[in-house]
Amino acid sequence: MRGRTWLGAALVLGAQLRALWLAAAVEVHTAREVVAVNGTNQRLKCTFSSSSPVSQQLSVSWNFQPEDLSSHEPVFYYLKEPYKPPSGRFKERVTWDGNIERNDVSIIIWNLQPSDNGTFTCQVTNWPDVYGTIGEVRLRVVQKVSFSEIHFLAVAIGSASVLMIIVVTAVIICQQRRRRARDKRSEVADTEL
């Protein structure tokens, strides 16, 4: 009797695990935070992974939550083809920049403004994977790039370039000195003979 109970429990557990496998979740990956300059365009990258192959029913929803926590606004929708928003702050300012075959569902926001500060969400449904994580990107639009961002990068690259030139020059000088010393020794050895 005990053997049958154990076997029954194993079969029930196996059926539940099989159901969970079939309803695997879509995983969405985004950058956590993006900083962009006012008036520029910014690509909001969103990729996904799914245990199922990409289906014809794959859908993508991009939404926006402003910093003042007012209501969510639709930004973009994809189902077999991209659909731009018919109205709202992102009308004529958002473009599809994804590639479904590469699991990329990114968009580009054009002409960024300080009112675009907030959180963008990217949700992907790939039937039968209908549940999953929602990717979030916090966008900060700044008036100009601060010194610590661009200038620091330029100084670091410039310093590395100068250091590389110094190292290469030192190596060349050392090789020339060794060659001269070797040539002198050869001349001295030849004159002694």
UniProtKB/TrEMBL annotation:
Keyword Nucleus attached: no
Keyword entries, A-Z: Disulfide bond, Glycoprotein, Immunoglobulin domain, Membrane, Signal, Transmembrane, Transmembrane helix
A Pfam family assignment: V-set
Bilayer topology: Single-pass type I membrane protein
Occurrences of domain Ig-like (ranges): 24-140
Cellular component terms (Gene Ontology): plasma membrane
Compartment(s): Membrane
Signal sequence segment: 1-25
Residues annotated as transmembrane: 150-174
An annotated GO BP: cell-cell adhesion
PANTHER family, alphabetized: MYELIN P0 RELATED (PTHR13869), MYELIN PROTEIN ZERO-LIKE PROTEIN 2 (PTHR13869:SF21)
Name of the molecule in the record: MPZL2 protein
UniProt organism field: Platysteira castanea
Gene: Mpzl2
